[in-house]
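A quick aside before the break. I want you to see a complete sequence-to-structure record at least once, exactly as it would be stored in a machine-readable document. Don't worry about memorizing anything.
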Amino acid sequence: MHGLLRRLFAPRWQHPDPEVRRQALQRLDPQHNEQRQALQSLAQDSDSHIQLAALLALDDCAGLVKAYPQHLQEDAWFNAVCQRISGREGHTDLQQRQTLIEQIDEPRALSAVALQGDNLSLRMSALDKLTDDNDLIHQACHNGVAAVRHQAAERIEDEEGLKRLLKEARRDRQVVRLARDRLNRLRSDAQWQEAEEQQREKLLNQLEQHARAPWEPLYGGRLRHLHRQWEQLTQPASVEQDQRFHHALLSGRKTLHDHETQKQARQQSAEQRDEAENTREQLLEGIEETLDGLRHASAITVQDIDSLRAQRQLLGQRWQTLSDMHPPSDTLRQRHARAIQHYDQCLETWQRWSATSPAIEIALGNGDHSDLATLVAQCQWPESFSSPSLLSRAQAALSAENAAPAQPTTEDTATVETHAAELDTFEQLLERGAFKSASRLHQRLKPNIEALESIAAQPLKVRLKHLAARLAELRDWRGFVAGPKREQLCASIEALASDLHMDEEALDRHHRQLVKEWKSLGDAAANREQSARFRTASDSIHERLAPWRDQLSEERAANLKARETLCDQLESLLEQPAEDADPDILRQIRDKARHQWRHYSPIPREGSEAVGRRFGVIRHRLQTLIDQRAETIASQKLALISQVVALRSDDSQPLAQRIHLTKQLQHQWRALGRAPKGEEQALWKNFRHECDQLFAQRDAHKNEQAARQQKQLDDMQTLIDQMESWQPINVSEATSLDNFLKQASQLEPLPHNRRSEGMQRRMSGIVRARRERLNRLAIADTVQQWHAIMPLVNAHLAADEHYLGEAIADDVDAQTILSAALPAEFIAAHHARNEQRLSVKAPLSDAELSKIADSLARLRVHLSMLALGSVRQSDEPLRLAIQVERLNEGFNQERSRDQNVTDILAALLALGPMPAALWAAEVEEFDNLLSRLARVPLP
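That is the input. The structure line, written in tokens, reads:
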């Protein structure tokens, strides 16, 4: 019973029958709280159709989107979501709709919103959620907004998708061009990747082949070249290729490392061998110098012998150690053998002297000259060594004993001193090894000194004998060395004479060297047979070289003439130098002249000295001219630096003008040439510093200007954002748009860049949209004014009907009928309507009736063009006539839509007298058109 009562007295929207609930839902008004709660309850109804109707009645776009995933297969839900999110229905603001777009994942709904959205940002948000290439291609081909089409086309990256886009996109050339360019880029990238892959594989094969090859001089350079080519490839390599590359690179580096190790080992061994040779050389030079010192010392002492023994012991130890490491060369081995032989000879002599020296000292003290002579003879002291002081005294005593007493004269003393000086010269020649000079001097001194009989001449004779022994030793040594050397020179020159394939220049060079070496031997080990052999081979070579030497003489003469011509040219240049001659050109002339001088060689010996002096004087004069011109350029560059300094501190000229002048000064600097070598760098640093200071001012000015332009762009961006967020709701807000445009004009002109161009396009679109909205608001206001004066219009119709029926013309008073004042736009039309009743006779003729009907139809067609943009097919002639009339009336004047609507309504009010039947036939169409014009889109 209780349930029955509840069903009987329950609201109809809670009825169990869905059809009853649906009918009850249609009568619910969301403006009342109780009914709104009922609608909210129905929004959770189990019936999808009732749930959808409740959500639409509540205008709950968020609830609609939230419940949409459970009804994806129902077209009614799909259409409702698309219409509400797109803004075609409902009153949900743009920001909320953009937020709801983020909650929708169904591609069909997102694609529909992207196609039908009433705002660009809304379409873009829906497009960003689309991921399938088919949806993006559909948007790029069929979306009505160009920005959306372009954005969708830019997101297509697959080659197949680009091919489809290129095939289907025909309405937008930019989309076609974008697809074509990206497809070409993909194909070129694919070709580039294929080429790089081939190049990488080729490099890998070359690198692996190079890694297997043995070392050769260009091995390291080739490996580095292949490595650089590999590094220059930008496409990443595969794992296998990377492993192959590193393996081949490691193999190549191992080959290089092994070679470097072997090379270092060889170098180290060679360095050790050279060091051993140097050490042996030093040891041999030391003992040879010691032995030579014993020959030239004034007297030999015990300390000299002990030092010689210590040096011999050191030589033996070090020589054996070094020989164990590296064997000595043949030359050093021979020198070592001779040095040991001389050492043994010296030691044996000293041992004999040590045995006889006590007895000699006793005999010398007793004056026993016979025993003294016997002991000196037993000593057998060689003449090549300096004798001890005791032995020298003994020999002097024996010489004094044997010499006849005589008193030296003044003449004999002078002769002895002269011969002593000549003996000193003789000894110096022997020390230098000048055998020929020493031999000639010995031949001249020997008879002169032996002819002296005074006691003072005895030391000269002993010294002469000692030096003669040294000369004989030098002769024997030269003969010992010169014999094999002469045989070698004879064999070499005979082989040279028999070599028929050697060119003349090399033959002449080798021949001269052999002749020089032959002459350097002098008469050492000379014999007629070897001399004849050498002379015969030399004559043969001379005969062979005779034509070449004649040719060489001609070439030398030509070179001498060329050098003289070069001198003549340089002298003519120096005699008349240009005042603005570039020192760099003069330096080039100097360097080229020096190069040509060296090129024209050899020349005849007899003319070389004179032409050489001449060229030296010319070079000096040319260098002086170069220095003078360089000094002049240095002074000019100092003047340029002063001008730059003046420009930098001159604030009276514009900065751009000063920069332009500075660049001209830089061109002048480059055209001047170089200053002297020591001053050029200092001048350039100073000039560059001053120019950099001025350019720094330019950069600071540019940065400041860029900051101003950036602020200007930011201010313009802020203004555009304000204009975009402003939506006029009343026609009186047109002044706000004018204020915005005034502020924008104050920020202009904007800098020319892509951002400013985009801002200007965006601002133009916003201004156009706001003007359009203001125009629509003005039209709606005009339509409202028309609705407000409809009592006046009806009064005129009644007056017209009374006039046409009874021929009584009544004036209609607007102030009596309307509660408010008649708008100014319709005052003239109101008076004209009253005058029409007075000027037209009743009843109307057919022509007059047809004229009124045509005028009314014309006004309807004109209003239809403004409201719908199109007319019925039967009204096409009127549309063409109206367009032609509008062109003729104001070709250069463009009237707004609200002005046209006002003119049409004013003409409609003034048209009369109007038959009631004619008005009744057209009034419904007029009302529909005015209702459409009065409809203002949501902001």
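Two observations worth writing down. Residues 239-296 form the longest helix (58 residues). Residues 1-9, 404-411 have pLDDT under 50 and may be disordered. We'll return to this after the break.
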